[in-house]
Known about the structure:
Elements: H1 3-12, E1 17-23, E2 26-33, E3 37-49, H2 51-64, E4 67-77, H3 82-134, H4 146-159, H5 169-175, H6 181-187, H7 194-205, H8 210-269, H9 273-276, E5 288-300, E6 303-321, E7 329-346, H10 347-361, H11 363-377, H12 381-391, H13 400-405, H14 410-415, H15 432-467
Antiparallel strand pairs: 1-2, 3-7, 4-5, 5-6, 6-7
Helix pairs in contact: 2-15, 3-4, 3-8, 7-8, 8-12
Amino acid sequence: MSEDYRSELLKEFGFEEEVGEIIIKGFEKTGFPVPIRVHRLSWEVYDLSLEEPYFWMLDYFKENFHFIEKIEDTFAAAENSAFFGVTQQRLGAQQDKVSQFLAAMGKMIKELFQMVRELRIIDERLTYYDEAEKQLDKPVYQRSKSSEITLKGLFVDLVQGGGKSAASVYGMARELEFITLPDLFFDAPPFKNEHELDEHIKALSENFNRNVIRVLQRHLRQFMEWKRRTHQEHKNRRRFQLQYLWQHFEIIKMYLNWIKPYLRHVARLTMKEKSISSADIVSAFEGSMLDIEFLAYKKKDDAYGCVLVTFNYRTRPEMKVVQDGYQRGPVHIGKMVVHTRAYAWTKKQFDNYKKLKEKETLLLMGEVSASVQKAMEALGEELDNYLAEARGDMEHKGSKKEEKTVQKSFMEKFFGDFYTPKKKGFDSGKSAKELKQEAAARNKAIEEFKGHVNFHTWNALHIFKKAHRMIAW
């Protein structure tokens, strides 16, 4: 990640960037928020594994702080080193798995579009059937004909073959000169049963030719039976398609859950670009660079006392660890630089820093999840409605249960930590006096934490130097 992008991230989350060591043209920015206090220790030991100092420092902060969270764990290795070869083999295996899952997910998401489209078409057809069925409660000649005419048009085009077929309504009018047949067929109202059809035919027989009436009765009876059977068929097909859509969606969700750990592994095994381009890494040497960062913190009244401990290693990995059933493992020998930075943050600042690190370290995962999320959202609200109906959880609009579920959207439940919700306003519902009291308690806790983190930021490195026989004063 470039320095400019890191600076932009800090500004995005409301942090002022720390200025560090002096360089030729001025001060170099470190890419960290401005701390209360910062201490730096540089230690180079040729014949000592550098895992021990890390765990010594980790144990110290575990004793003095309530919570420890690892924020960053990245590395880079020289291209010709044995460490590089081992990690690339493992990375290749993880990438193969990711590509397989993504290919399967892409195919299934494409099929999801087709399923939703088919359900839309079925719903459109069922609208005509339902509207025509509602008219059956009215007297015969007061019933609306619009939906019935639409269904009759589908019947003539799809079942009878349209005007090209001589046996259709239009074909008989053209070939056998039953000119009035199409008008009589489409003008007939919806019929509840065969008795209403016969009564309608008797009323027409007084004014029209018997042959025309006979053919009209055949077509109307055939249409009635087609409408009744296809209506039930569309209902069954819709129910089956809903269940199939739900099953298909659950499989996509399962693939997404499977792919999450592989994406994390790929992000961790991917070399840090900044370290690879560093002058400390030479492709012909057995060298590597590691960056580890953890956050130790206490919290009280929405105030957080934090110490950010950053390890920067420049090491020579030796593949010495050989155990039965395991591959070779590296022992890192070389130089270590430790920074301890003290912060007294509000809850918002604390959450913003964690979000900043997640956005930085899980950038690859975020791009993949965003593409899947956008594909799902492109389907619109219909997908949510169909899936909710398939689960049998459709609620009336404005119900209390629906108001409770609005707090966590369906997409957020599906994607979990992959989902990026849209920002909304928040009203705590508290009075101005209560908010003022909370702010005063938070500010008091922040002032108390400043002294605590100040002391441990210095004391950790001071005791570390004494424990490792360095000069300390």
